[in-house]
Design a protein that fits this description.
The chain is α/β, with parallel strands linked by helices and about 400 residues long. It has 13 helices and 8 strands.
Length: about 400
């Protein structure tokens, strides 16, 4: 009897594991270039914590992948940094440049960080961004665009955006002036929607990416999300960055600090709490948790996580290759609006105080004038009373 119970238990245990194993095995979506890049990146590089040998392995892997695409000039930009615990560490950015055949100094930078946190495998954050970066590079190498395209896999983002800070620090003023736009891709597979974060209030060029992303076969909702929507929540500065960048901390902030227009791709569902972590498909948090693994995401989200990555690829490639959109992107800098910092709480308080003080001064002054007027009026009346009645008339009464 004991033996029978034991056998039943073993059978139950094996059968409970079967669906997960079966799903993981059938998750062969390698016809989608994003999934092919994602699965190879995760399986071949493993954990890529900033400053570790795992990150070096990933850097080498990325250099090889970019180099296998003809038409790209590939280089590695090493840098040292001191982390929040005052420890010294090294990392690198992997750069691949697609030169335009047209005589131009202008460039569009597309970036995604390739490091990850200690927990999980960093599939959503940011294997998905790396997969999109490589797939976009793969489809743009054959295109001749009116600007150079610079692909950058950033190191040490999770440690404090050190890769993008270093990259910007090495740009000349001419480089900064010639950069039309920076497109940052960070965590684009979990969640219900793709969000395209634009600058400030005017988001003409952001809408191009939204339209291009929605106009495909994947049935993924792409939404525009201006950064200013989060200003009130995030006035407090972080790490020396202006308050409006704290809304979504990722590598684009380093470029925005240098006054370069940015577009930021991110997926999630802000209709629910912790929208940056969850979706209606899976209420479990994924970002920076032990659930951020390929098997978990494949099982819980199915193909939808692949279709989100594909949507971002389409959004970027369609926008950049459209001649009409290229013209609009070239004016992106003009769409940056500087006044919206006026909407922050400290400014509101100062303006309110100034208003109250000026009202008090004005009222006091008015009171003074009124008193003066009454006095003047009284003097006039008194004057008239004495002047209008000749003394002779009094005696006639
Ligand atoms: Zn990230």
């Amino acid at each position: 009897m004991r033996k029978l119970i034991f056998i039943i238990l073993i059978v139950c245990l094996i059968s409970s594991l079967l669906p997960l194993t079966a799903y993981a095995q059938t998750a062969d979506w390698s016809t989608y270039s994003t999934y092919d890049y994602l699965s190879r990146f995760i399986n071949q590089c493993g954990k890529r914590v900033a400053g570790t040998s795992g990150e070096v392995t990933a850097s080498n892997w990325l250099r090889t992948e970019f180099a296998s695409m003809s038409g790209l000039e590939v280089s590695v930009q090493p840098f040292d940094y001191t982390d929040e615990d005052n420890a010294k560490a090294s990392s690198s950015n992997v750069i691949a440049i697609k030169q335009s055949s047209q005589a131009t100094d202008t460039q569009v930078i597309i970036c995604a960080h390739y490091d990850c946190v200690m927990t999980g495998e960093g599939v959503f954050d940011n294997g998905s961004g790396v997969a999109v970066l490589l797939a976009v590079a793969d489809s743009l190498v054959a295109q001749d665009l009116p600007f150079d395209v610079v692909f950058v896999a950033m190191g040490a983002e999770e440690a404090g955006m050190y890769g993008s800070q270093y990259y910007v620090s090495q740009m000349t003023q001419a480089d900064i002036g010639n950069t039309l736009l920076v497109i940052n891709i960070d965590s684009v597979s979990v969640g219900d929607y793709i969000y395209v974060y634009g600058e400030d209030v005017k988001t003409d060029y952001t809408q191009l990416f939204v339209n291009a992303g929605q106009n495909n076969d994947y049935d993924v909702t792409v939404k525009s999300k201006p950064l200013y929507k989060d200003i009130q929540l995030a006035y407090t500065g972080y790490g020396g960055y202006p308050y409006y960048q704290t809304a979504q901390l990722s590598d684009h902030s380093s470029f925005r600090s240098a006054s370069i227009p940015t577009v930021f791709f991110f997926s999630g569902n802000y209709d629910v709490s912790l929208g940056y972590q969850v979706s209606s498909q899976s209420t479990n948090e994924v970002m920076h948790t032990s659930s951020d693994t390929l098997s978990y995401i494949n099982e819980k989200l199915g193909i939808s996580h692949v279709l989100k990555m594909e949507t971002v690829v389409q959004s970027i490639t369609k926008t950049l290759t459209s001649p009409q959109n290229a013209t609009i992107i070239s004016t992106a800098r003009e769409h940056m609006v500087g006044w919206f910092w006026l909407q922050t709480w400290p400014v509101c308080i100062v303006v309110a105080l100034l208003f109250i003080v000026s009202m008090v001064i004005a009222l006091r002054h008015l009171n003074k004038l009124r008193k003066q007027a009454i006095l003047d009026d009284y003097e006039v009346k008194t004057d008239t009373l004495f002047k209008s009645v000749p003394p002779d008339d009094i005696y006639k009464l």
